[in-house]
Design brief:
The complex is a heterodimer of chains A (about 400) and B (about 230). Chain A contains 13 helices and 12 strands. Chain A has about 400 residues and is α+β, with helices and mostly antiparallel strands. Chain A folds into 2 domains: about 180 residues, no CATH class; about 200 residues, no CATH class. Chain A is elongated. Chain B is built from 7 helices and 10 strands. Chain B is globular and about 50 Å long. The chains are: A alpha+beta (about 400), B alpha/beta (about 230).
């Protein structure tokens, strides 16, 4: 294997038979190129799906209410289920150790005005925990805090784009913002990876909204995040448990689909991952198939090459080459060509993936690339198949009888 | 040097077999220059192949330099070929992508000699056949006579006990043939044992002994007065 003279012999044979080398190398390079690109695009698809979940914490659950669709325990159907503060407290205190963060949400819209600028924005009235559930990142100032809740302050936190729309380049902390005729004090500016809509929001304490609009303790929705140590299966079971408990609490039929709904990202992620794994598997199979056809190609060309070299190999044997040295020569040549060509295919593939970058975002392909582990495995497969592709023709070469090879045509 | 007793060889041709060598008894001493003559089909090429360990006899014994040649596996045969024998073929059989020097150095490569030694020795033998200046040329750039001289240099490079030449002048015109024979005679003068298969009487007369083969048996084995090729060159 590490005989320098033999390598020199092989390099010479390769260098002086360029067309043959190019042909066999090309098939392998092409195979690896397609394999790399397919795998990269598959990863891009995976990245794209995963990125759609990063907006919110992945262990988040949403609890929403609606109207009952069935009569149950003496109650008429079409009864409106309304969450109140006590329900939020129930969720927060009833599942100690399982619930990590919890927040209610009340949705409103409002027309915000500052000097001559104005715009309509979505308002979410929330608990301080909301920051962690939504993965809100503070750029300036602070988020809503417990004191705001207690004092029912008119403090608000505005999105980066609200600031940009209304305040241009002015600093906003401590400024007053008029929303539907009420003055609020801006205590913070945030950004959010969920896109522009998520950054055109205004957060305020839910207690404040309850006081200002109707003086009630109504809530639109309750969000929570479960303890990350729970497995996906346990998390799904947990969300079923909450749904069951709440249905009992509100006297809703257990099979009523519309009155109380617990929606868990865990379920979504699980399903998506199953689909993605399927797609990934298909891509992988196609990729391996391409690789194998490339290897078969090199096997063919090596067979052809051995046939073409029958005379040369016969001469070598007459001059004292052992069958072992003939096998080693053909094998090493095959492995060398496979490895080099494969590596070039890999490099070009990686380059193509780099060039593609995020330009295929609209086709759900984000940041396509292959990781080092896969590259190493692919290289090993390549060398292994190179050996395999070379072995059969090499054995045939070793069996060449010098008299037949040297017989004059 | 070569001892052959009662050598038989037949080839299967479909259902019937063709008996090519029908009991050959033959010995060659060191330093001899023997011509093996015979018409095509007489078995002379088969005999040479067996002598060259490229083929094996069905029965009979073969000793080369007192070593029994029998039941060798391929690896061993390759080793013996490399150590004992040098081949010269009618069609030269040079490797076309290697230069004259590299062709000559090839048997040394299979003797696991190092690169420097190979180049030096190969160059020596090339000078010996008068082709030192052509060392870096490819076979396609050489004339037929030059090619055969490179082939002779290559056969000599491994310093074999016996040189086997199968119709060495068969593809050459008579002037070039005599040049090649001149070289063969020179090598023989230095003590090398050489067997030449030929069907040309004038080439056979340049050897020291002629063995006539006919239908698989030796019909005549006589020493001749050697005609020196140098007088025609």
């Amino acid at each position: 294997m590490f005989d320098r003279d033999r390598w020199r012999e092989i390099f010479e044979a390769i260098g002086k038979n360029k067309l043959r080398t190019f042909l066999s190398g090309f098939t392998v390079a092409l195979g690896i190129l397609i394999f790399t690109i397919l795998l990269g695009l598959g990863n891009g698809l995976l990245n794209s799906f995963l990125s759609s979940f990063v907006d919110d914490a992945q262990n988040v659950m949403f609890i929403r209410s609606g109207n009952t669709s069935k009569a149950y325990k003496g109650f008429q159907e079409n009864r409106k289920i309304q969450f109140k503060n006590e329900d939020f407290e129930f969720i927060k205190n009833n599942y100690i150790g399982k619930v990590e963060f919890a927040t209610p949400r009340i949705y409103r819209d409002g027309l915000a005005k500052y000097k001559k600028e104005s715009g309509s924005y979505g308002i979410r009235a929330v608990h301080p925990d909301h920051q962690y559930l939504e993965k809100t990142i503070m750029m300036n100032g602070r988020y809503i805090n417990e004191a705001d809740l207690k004092e029912r302050t008119k403090n608000i936190v505005i999105g980066r784009l609200v600031e940009k729309d209304l305040f241009k380049n002015e600093s906003v902390l401590g400024k007053m913002l008029n929303i539907d005729g009420i003055q609020y004090k801006i205590v913070g500016v945030f950004q959010d990876s969920g896109g522009d809509n998520e950054e055109r929001l205004i957060y305020m304490p839910y207690t404040t909204v309850q006081l200002l609009f109707g003086n009630n303790d109504y809530l639109d929705q309750i969000n929570l995040s479960y303890n990350m140590t729970m497995s996906t299966e346990k998390a799904i079971a947990f969300s079923k448990q909450i749904e069951k408990d709440l249905k009992e609490r509100f006297r809703v039929a257990p099979d009523d689909q519309s009155a109380i709904r617990v929606y868990s990202l865990a379920e979504d992620i699980k399903e998506t991952m199953v689909v993605l794994r399927g797609i990934y598997l298909i891509i992988f199979v196609i990729g391996i198939g391409t690789l194998i056809s490339g290897v078969i190609g090199i096997g063919n060309i090596m067979t052809f090459s051995v046939k073409e070299r029958t005379k040369e190999l016969g001469i070598r044997k007459a001059l004292g080459a052992s069958p072992g040295s003939i096998i080693a020569m053909v094998l090493q040549e095959s492995v060398l060509i496979t490895a080099i060509a494969g590596y070039m295919g890999l490099l070009v593939g990686i380059l193509v993936l780099k060039l593609i970058g995020n330009s295929l975002k609209e086709f759900f392909i984000l940041n396509p690339k292959v990781d080092t582990g896969v590259i190493i495995v692919a290289t090993m497969i390549l060398i292994f198949f190179g050996l395999l592709a070379g072995y059969i023709p090499a054995r045939r070469a070793a069996k060449i009888k010098p008299i037949i090879a040297l017989r004059d045509e | 040097m070569i001892e052959i007793k009662d050598l038989h060889k037949s080839y299967k041709m479909g259902s019937n077999s063709l008996h090519v060598l029908k009991g050959i008894n033959f010995s060659v001493k060191e330093g001899e220059l023997v011509a093996i003559m015979g018409s095509s089909g007489s078995g002379k090429s088969t005999l040479l192949n067996i002598l060259g360990m490229l083929d094996e006899a069905d029965s009979g014994t073969y000793f080369l330099d007192n070593v029994p040649i029998k039941g060798l596996n391929e690896t061993k045969a390759a080793k013996y070929r490399n150590k004992f024998l040098g081949f010269v073929f009618q069609s030269f059989n040079l490797i076309n992508y290697k230069t004259a020097l590299e062709n000559v150095a090839l048997p040394l490569y299979y003797q696991r000699k190092n690169r420097k030694e190979r180049a030096e020795k190969a160059m020596d033998y090339l000078s010996k056949v008068g082709l030192a200046e052509w060392a870096t040329h490819l076979p396609s750039e050489l004339s037929g006579g030059q090619k055969q001289r490179v082939a002779i240099a290559r056969a000599l490079a491994a310093d074999p006990k016996v040189l086997l030449a199968d119709e060495p002048t068969g593809a050459l015109d008579s002037k070039t043939s005599y040049e090649v024979m001149d070289i063969i005679q020179t090598i023989n003068d230095e003590g090398k044992t050489i067997l030449v298969v030929t069907h040309e009487p004038d080439i056979a007369d340049m050897c020291k002994r002629i063995v006539h083969l006919k239908d698989g048996v030796i019909v005549e084995d006589k020493p001749v007065k050697q005609i020196r090729a140098s007088q025609y060159v």
